[in-house]
DNA sequence: GGCTACCAAGTAACCCGGTA
DNA sequence: TACCGGGTTACTTGGTAGCC
C-alpha cells in the first residue's frame, strides 16, 4: 500500500504525542498490561504537520526490539478489542487491513483464540499494535482510521466498485451503505438536516442533536414502538416523514421496527433507531411540535 | 488462512385499507 | 377510482463464526 500524505486530516503529530504521554496512565479496568508505546520511535513533537497513512500505522508499530520485561495479556487485549468493536466505530475487516496490516481472518483468530504472548512470533506485533491502539483516545483512533483508510487510493478504488483485486474488505463509512446508516446511529451523528428556519426556533439543532442522540442503556422496544405509533396517530405525522427526517432511515425500516420490535438485548444495528425514538418521546410536546413545524411535517396546518 | 453458512439490516415490490 | 399511507414478503449485502 503506498504511503501518502493526507492533507485533509486534522490530526497532528503533536496531538498524537499528547496521546502517547497519557500512556503511563493505567488502562481502565486493566492491571495486566504494561506500557509499551513509550518505547516506540515516535515523531518528535516539533512536527506539527498532518501525518500520512504510513505514519499512522507506524504509530502503532514496534520500531524497537521488545524488552524482555514486557508482558502483554493477549486475553485482556482480545477482550478489550472485542468490546471496542461493539462500538462499531470500525469494522473488524477494516481495522485488520488498514490498521494492523493483516487479513480479517487473522484478526479474528487473534481475538477468538488468543495465545500466550511469549509463544507468539509474528503475532506479537499485532497484539502490540492492538495494545497501543487501546491506549489512544477515541478521537485519535477516529483520526487514524480516517487517515489510514478513508483517504488512500485503495479504499477509493474499492469503494467505487467490486473491481478491486486486493482482498475484499469493508470500509464502514464509504463502502457499505447499510453500515453507513448503522454507523450513523451508533456514532450519534444525527439525521436531522439543518434548515435555516431552525435558527429562529427556541431549540437549536445542536441542542436537539445532543439530546436526541443521548446514550441510553436500555429501551423498552415494545413500549417505545407503541408510544411512537400512538404519537404518529395523534399528530397525524406520517411514518415517511418521521423515518426520513427524524430517524434518517427509510420508511420500511421504521415500519418494521414499530411492528416487529426485537428485544433490546437482541438488537445490534437498530439500537440507534430505538434510542432516537426513546429520546424523541422524552422531548416535550411543545418541542416536538416545533420540530415538526420546522421540518414541515404533514398535517401541521391542522395543529 | 480459505471456504462457507448463517445472521442481521436495509430495501424493492407488492398488496390492502381508508378517503376524497 | 385514483391516491396515499401502512403492512408484508422476498431479496441483497456485509459481518461473523464454524470448519477444515
UniProtKB/TrEMBL annotation:
<keyword id="KW-0238">DNA-binding</keyword>
<feature type="domain" description="CUT">
    <location>
        <begin position="63"/>
        <end position="149"/>
    </location>
</feature>
<keyword id="KW-0371">Homeobox</keyword>
<dbReference type="InterPro" id="IPR051649">
    <property type="entry name" value="CUT_Homeobox"/>
</dbReference>
<dbReference type="GO" id="GO:0005634">
    <property type="term" value="C:nucleus"/>
</dbReference>
<dbReference type="Pfam" id="PF02376">
    <property type="entry name" value="CUT"/>
</dbReference>
<dbReference type="GO" id="GO:0000981">
    <property type="term" value="F:DNA-binding transcription factor activity, RNA polymerase II-specific"/>
</dbReference>
<protein>
    <recommendedName>
        <fullName>CUT domain-containing protein</fullName>
    </recommendedName>
</protein>
<feature type="domain" description="CUT">
    <location>
        <begin position="210"/>
        <end position="296"/>
    </location>
</feature>
<dbReference type="GO" id="GO:0000978">
    <property type="term" value="F:RNA polymerase II cis-regulatory region sequence-specific DNA binding"/>
</dbReference>
<dbReference type="InterPro" id="IPR003350">
    <property type="entry name" value="CUT_dom"/>
</dbReference>
<keyword id="KW-0539">Nucleus</keyword>
<dbReference type="InterPro" id="IPR010982">
    <property type="entry name" value="Lambda_DNA-bd_dom_sf"/>
</dbReference>
<keyword id="KW-0804">Transcription</keyword>
<keyword id="KW-0805">Transcription regulation</keyword>
Amino acid at each position: 500500500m503506498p504511503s501518502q500524505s493526507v492533507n485533509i486530516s486534522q490530526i497532528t503529530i503533536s496531538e498524537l504525542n499528547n496521546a502517547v504521554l497519557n500512556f503511563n496512565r493505567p488502562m481502565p479496568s486493566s492491571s495486566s498490561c504494561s506500557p509499551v508505546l513509550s518505547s516506540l520511535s515516535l515523531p518528535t513533537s516539533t512536527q506539527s504537520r498532518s501525518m500520512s497513512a504510513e505514519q499512522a500505522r507506524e504509530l502503532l508499530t514496534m520500531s524497537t526490539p521488545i524488552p524482555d520485561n514486557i508482558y502483554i495479556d493477549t486475553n485482556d487485549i482480545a477482550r478489550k478489542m472485542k468490546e471496542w468493536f461493539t462500538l462499531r466505530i470500525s469494522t473488524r475487516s477494516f481495522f485488520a487491513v488498514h490498521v494492523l496490516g493483516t487479513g480479517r481472518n487473522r484478526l479474528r483468530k487473534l481475538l477468538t483464540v488468543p495465545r500466550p504472548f511469549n509463544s507468539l512470533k509474528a503475532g506479537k506485533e499485532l497484539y502490540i499494535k492492538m495494545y497501543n491502539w487501546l491506549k489512544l483516545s477515541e478521537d485519535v483512533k477516529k483520526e487514524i482510521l480516517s487517515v489510514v483508510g478513508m483517504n488512500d487510493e485503495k479504499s477509493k478504488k474499492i469503494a467505487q466498485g467490486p473491481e478491486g483485486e486486493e482482498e475484499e474488505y469493508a470500509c464502514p463509512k464509504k463502502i457499505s451503505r447499510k453500515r453507513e446508516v448503522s454507523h450513523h446511529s451508533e456514532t450519534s451523528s444525527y439525521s436531522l438536516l439543518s434548515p435555516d428556519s431552525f435558527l429562529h426556533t427556541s431549540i437549536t439543532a445542536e441542542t436537539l442533536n445532543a439530546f436526541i442522540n443521548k446514550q441510553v442503556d436500555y429501551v423498552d422496544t415494545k413500549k417505545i414502538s407503541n408510544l411512537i405509533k400512538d404519537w404518529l396517530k395523534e399528530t397525524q405525522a406520517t411514518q415517511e416523514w418521521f423515518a426520513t427526517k427524524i430517524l434518517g432511515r427509510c420508511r420500511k425500516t421504521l415500519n418494521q421496527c414499530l411492528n416487529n420490535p426485537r428485544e433490546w438485548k437482541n438488537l445490534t444495528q437498530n439500537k440507534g433507531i430505538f434510542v432516537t425514538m426513546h429520546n424523541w418521546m422524552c422531548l416535550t410536546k411543545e418541542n416536538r411540535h416545533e420540530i415538526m413545524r420546522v421540518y414541515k411535517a404533514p398535517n401541521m396546518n391542522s395543529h
